[in-house]
Fold:
Amino acid sequence: DHPWRGELVFVAAETPFADGFYSREHVAHPRLLDVLLDDTTSSARLVLAGIDLAAPAPLPPFSAATRFAWRAFGIALPVLLLLVFVHGRGLLRGALGAGRRLLGAGRTAALPLGALALVLLFVRGARALDLGLDLTAARVNELSPAAAAIAARAGAQGEIEATLYLSEPSQLPPVLRTPARELERSLAVFRHAGARLALEHVVPERLDEPARAALEARGIVSQAGASSDDGVTRVTRFACALRLARGGREVVLAFPDARAFERTEFRLAFALERLGGRAAPRVAFASDVPRLSAAEAFEYQKQSLFAPSGTDVFALARASLAQNDLEVVHVNPRAPVMPEQSDVLVWLQPRRSIEPMLEEAVRYLHGGGKLVLAAQHFKLLAQQFRGGDFVPKLWPQPQNPDLEHLYFPELGIELVREVLFDTLNVPIATESQVTGRRGGRDFERQDSALPFQIRLSAAGFAAHALTQGLGDQAFLWANFLRLDAARLTALGIRATPLAFTSRETWSYAWTGGWIPDELLRGPAAIEKSSGAEYLGPLPLAALFEGSFPKPTKPLRLNPPTPPAEGAANAPGGETMPVEPAAIEPAEAPWPASAPGRLVLIGDSQFLENGALGSEEFRGDQLLWNLVAGLAFDGELAELATRTLTAPGFGLVEPRARLFWRAAVVAAGPLVLVLCAAGCAALRRLPRHAALARHP
Structure:
């Protein structure tokens, strides 16, 4: 709020100012308008708006070395002036003695400084010769053998033009400066492995306008980046892209943010393969917008209002796949039109009515396709009412995926429609609905750590190629899978669980009302609960492989009653022909049966836009592992899931957690005490030895 600067107020809806809503009872729309006018038309702003003041031109962006030099000068100069003012005479008198002391100190420090210089020279030489030592368990800091083999094959096919379009470091956001330098090192490593890269550096800001327009036509565009320093946000435009070209083919890799650099090794190897003629996998991505339940929509209808509908909550998940150089095609699950060729189908959170999309998915699986399906039955909403003293109550909002009714029961696969609880949970801030506090319905952000906010620990993943290198996941409101092993075996389908809950789980078969408070404290022997004992580890995701059969029942929740043969009886007993509309259309031909692969996940919220921005829980990495593991094979499949991820812990008992916390806190002081005791003992040894020689 600075009167010298402009101010933009963005309101996400026009409703507060619309006729009929502006003066509505129990709302503060007039007060909102008064506050906005008072703020934007304050006396200071009106006076400054009438004065033509020339603002000083901003300083040009400095390099990192220049910024460091000016900061050091600004800090050191006042200190030196203060020392001269206070101790000027003493410094002059002791200058000669200080010179002698400094000379003696220099002789003493000559050996350590020489050793330091040798170490720096060794590091410089090792970097120049591309020598290094990788001590990580997964060897993620060195080029993998698969990437080296791809680089060698690409080098054997000829020289590759590599053009790195990179802005000056001062123009790059601070979080991208180190990854940009690492990108150049990665190119040098690939070149050392055999890829014949003719590297050229181009600063797009130095090009003329026609040249920049030509770059934009190739997909090399400038990005907007923001950085905050001392409360001031600075927005700059920068470019960071790599173009590889050979024999009429070219591949452009864009790096708009820090996450685009996470799989640099895979992206470079995949680009080299594409230059050799390999096509990018095509991913069909089906997702629907969230909608209110029938009961919630009826509440709006009683107030003569339209029930609000959601937006595309999986847009960032779709963009994360495209950012890693896959071809992503969106499919509308309401009226699905599948692309002609697709390597993987991703279907997130089916919503009633699922019949059109389910038929396409089953046909795709039957023909040997690969499907990633993520769904959950509920979203747990906290609600508070005036009549209940605003005590939070938890209501499961049905999401209606209907997977427990159609096709999957025939396979022996059930997404269990029960609220699942786990002692290993995630503390988060969620929206709570408050009704009656101000005469209407409000939503507030409230912190909670409830057992249905499940934390899928990295220790809960099975040892499988699809789950390699994954960290903890936030599986809020997840549902577990129940598998009929005998049925799956009879159909020739192999099931491999991929992820499990902790051992302390319980569930509640909700059919209406609130979640009982007893279940928030642990398993309880109440009606519709799983009992007073823990259920143990339960599968949250599984891989199914085999030939998926055609459905034996209609893929409809309410199939129409078949008409009588020949004709229908009229009220007078006469016969009348059957209407053409009552006749089912002919079924489209099914593809030839082939082995397919299905990954079923009992949660979809971890892929919503609000969850993908988390740095602690990377749902985009789990989605990428599944899609890349199904789309690629061989070397690229190995490279696609090769990342450096912090390992997580499973369920730790409270006593063990307290013990390790105490051990970590006390370890430092204990080491210092032991070192002090050891030094004191070493000092006493010569004295005792002297006393022993001269008693």
User: Anything to note?
Assistant: The chain has a mean pLDDT of 83.
